[in-house]
Structure formats: C-alpha cells, structure tokens
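// run 5 | inverse folding | seed 20
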C-alpha cells in the first residue's frame, strides 16, 4: 500500500512540473528528450545569457532548457537574504566569489552578470562539467574574469574517487567513508580526480583571501571535508552559502562533523527554507543539528533523499533579522 501511494505521489509531482512550463514547456521538454539521440550538447539562450548544456543531464541542463525564461531561484533567494544582513552586505562590496562545485558554470555566469561579482574562482572536478564550464564562461564574455580550477576541494591534497551520476551532472560525489552502496542507490562508476585543501590554494596564491566577498559551495555531502581543509576561511568574516543535504552528508559519513565545525566557528546560520515555502529564518549555529526534527525529515520517508535546504553561515547579523 505504501509503495503504491508513493508511486502516485511521484506521478502527481511529475505532472505538476510538466504543466508548469505551459505548452511551450511541453514542446521544449519533448525536444530535449529527443535531442539526446542526436547530440551530446545543445545551447540555450536564457534571459540574455547563453549556456551549453548536456542532453544526458535530466536535472540542471534540462531545467535550463525547458524553463529558459525563469531565473535560478536558489541564487536569487540567497542574495535577497545576503543583502538583508549588515555585515554580509559590506562583505559583498568586495570583488571575488569562490564557487566550490561550479558544475557547468550557470551560477558562475550569473554571479558575474547579475549579482555584481567582479571575478570568480570556479572549482569543478568532473571533466565533462569542466569542459562545459569553459564553454559557458567563453560564450558569455566573462572568460577573463574567471579562474577555473579542475579539482575537488577536500581536507587533503592528493586524489579521490568521484562517483558519477549518469543523468544528473550536479550529483557527482566524492566517495566518502559512508557505504558506497547503501541499498537505496546502485553502485556508481567513478573517475579519479585531483583534490586540494582550500588553505593550500590560499598559500599558493590561487585564492586571494583578502579580496573574497563570498564563498558559494555545493559539493553533494562533502561540505565538512571542504571546511576541514579551510581553516583560513573558518577564521575569516567571509560568509558561506552552502547546501545542507542530510542524506548526502550521512552517505559521506560527515553529518555530525559538519554540525561540529559550524557550531564551533560560526555564530549564526540563516536557513533559506526548504521546498517551495522558502521561509528565511536565523538560528544559533549550535541549533543546526536539530533541523531535521524541526522539518520532520525522517530517514524512513521515501522522500528523504530529496530533503535539503540552503544555508548562509554567518558571524554576525543585522539587528531585527527574523529569528526562528
């Protein structure tokens, strides 16, 4: 009975997403599905920007192509919150953004074209994503403002195995200490990638910490490893926008480690809200460990793998910012 209910709910959600784009969205959805048979890459014009996308990617690339008139809501929502916070607003007046997990560069380009960044250091380990990242910064005329590094940030310098998702270019993951196959997902193919510590890049001059106004991080459960290798970042006033995805963090064996790092080094966490509600709230950093209970995210739920929210890690906030 439970499996039947879950199947029906998934179908209803799929129908809802299909109808959101209207007739044009339906046509573009069909075109994108058919294009995979003929070409590995297409271009899409999106509100004055141009992106090369992978036809095998059924998440980000497909969304960019089908909903080409809609902005990326996560970056828009994060910057609304950032501009409400006193210290973070001052910090954003600096010129450099570090993007950890740049994927194909859609956020890289928007940070430069829409959100006032002067330069971006875009860090992406996957060879396919990195190639599209290069094409996209070139196609949008920002190649001279982006330093692209093909590696994965972690807690050590060396190499690691990157697990590859066949249909989601944003879900490649560094293999962690958790089980590689937990029964919920098949064992993925891997590719060996270079790893580096954030602090090593600072020491080598690849990152000028004094010019950094923001760090944007989306690394599919590897966030604790990145922060362990980034003491210079943890000790700085630089705000960090990051995805908080308990399933991925547990799979990497790093959920409790992330809670401890954030509680130790930050005063506040701004929760940007999960799902469509997007209700921003501020909480003491030490309270992050209880957020799953507050949201009612249960590991036994069939939707647990999809539960995530975006966070801003902050040292100070403006008086009167809503606490929840």
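// decoded
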């Amino acid at each position: 009975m439970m499996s039947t209910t879950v199947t029906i709910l998934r179908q209803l959600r799929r129908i809802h997403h299909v109808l959101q784009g209207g007739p044009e969205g339906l046509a573009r959805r069909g075109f994108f599905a058919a294009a995979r048979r003929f070409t590995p890459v297409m271009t899409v014009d999106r509100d004055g920007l141009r992106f090369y996308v992978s036809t095998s990617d059924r998440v980000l690339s497909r969304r960019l192509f089908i909903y080409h008139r809609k902005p990326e809501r996560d970056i828009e929502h994060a910057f609304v919150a950032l501009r409400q916070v006193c210290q973070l607003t001052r910090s954003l007046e600096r010129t450099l953004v570090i993007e950890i997990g740049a994927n194909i560069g859609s956020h890289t380009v928007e940070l430069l074209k829409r959100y006032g960044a002067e330069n971006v250091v875009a860090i992406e380990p996957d060879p396919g994503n990195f190639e599209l990242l290069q094409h996209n910064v070139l196609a949008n005329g920002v190649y001279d403002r982006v330093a692209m590094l093909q590696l994965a940030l972690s807690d050590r310098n060396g190499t690691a195995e990157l697990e590859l998702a066949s249909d989601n270019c944003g879900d490649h993951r560094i293999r962690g200490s958790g089980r590689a196959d937990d029964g919920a997902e098949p064992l993925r193919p891997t590719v060996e990638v270079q790893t580096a510590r954030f602090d090593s890049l600072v020491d080598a001059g690849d990152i000028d910490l004094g010019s950094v106004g923001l760090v944007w991080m989306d690394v599919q459960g590897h966030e604790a490893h990145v922060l362990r290798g980034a003491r210079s970042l943890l000790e700085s006033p630089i705000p960090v926008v990051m995805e908080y995805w308990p399933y991925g963090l547990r799979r990497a064996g790093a959920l409790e480690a992330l809670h401890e790092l954030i509680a130790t080094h930050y005063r506040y966490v701004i929760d940007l809200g999960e799902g469509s509600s997007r209700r921003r709230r501020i909480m003491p950093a030490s309270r992050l460990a209880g957020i799953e209970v507050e949201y009612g995210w249960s590991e036994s739920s069939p939707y647990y793998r999809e539960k995530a929210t975006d966070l801003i890690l902050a040292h100070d906030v403006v008086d009167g910012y809503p606490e929840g």
